[in-house]
Design brief:
The protein is mostly beta strands. The protein is built from no helices and eleven strands. It is about 0% helix and about 50% strand.
Length: about 130
């Protein structure tokens, strides 16, 4: 049974930074492509960052490019999202997702591509 455990969400001032984490527990011997999504109330869940299983390939949604950084520590089976220069419009719940893959060089940006999801962590940037 694969589980994703998120942590690190909190409230910060606009312009501030924080890092959220997602630990993969269970079948950690498998290779996983990972993604971070966010979803506001009544809105569609959308990908903001994705990374291949090898960690060599990344993708960012336009509104977060240059501000957010996704990374992995495969030894710890953990994916991180560093959020810098936070804006009030970044305020929402962030979810991590994992997909078991055979290819090390593919990332995924669609909700339907992922097999496992975390419980969500709230990020708030106040002005």
């Amino acid at each position: 049974q694969v589980q994703l455990v998120e942590s690190g969400g909190r409230s910060v001032q606009a312009g501030g930074s924080l890092r959220i984490s997602c630990a993969v527990t269970g079948r950690t011997s498998s290779r996983y492509a990972m993604g971070w999504f966010r979803q506001g109330p009544g809105k569609e869940r959308k990908c903001v960052a994705a990374i291949s299983a090898s960690g060599e390939d990344t993708w960012y949604e336009d509104s977060v490019k240059g501000r957010f950084t996704i990374s992995t520590d495969n030894a710890k089976s953990t994916v991180y999202l560093q959020l810098n220069s936070l804006k009030p419009e970044d305020t929402t719940v962030y979810y991590c997702a994992a997909r078991s893959v055979a290819s090390d060089r593919t990332y995924y940006t669609q909700v339907s591509s992922y097999d496992y999801w975390g419980q969500g962590t709230q990020v708030t940037a106040s002005s």
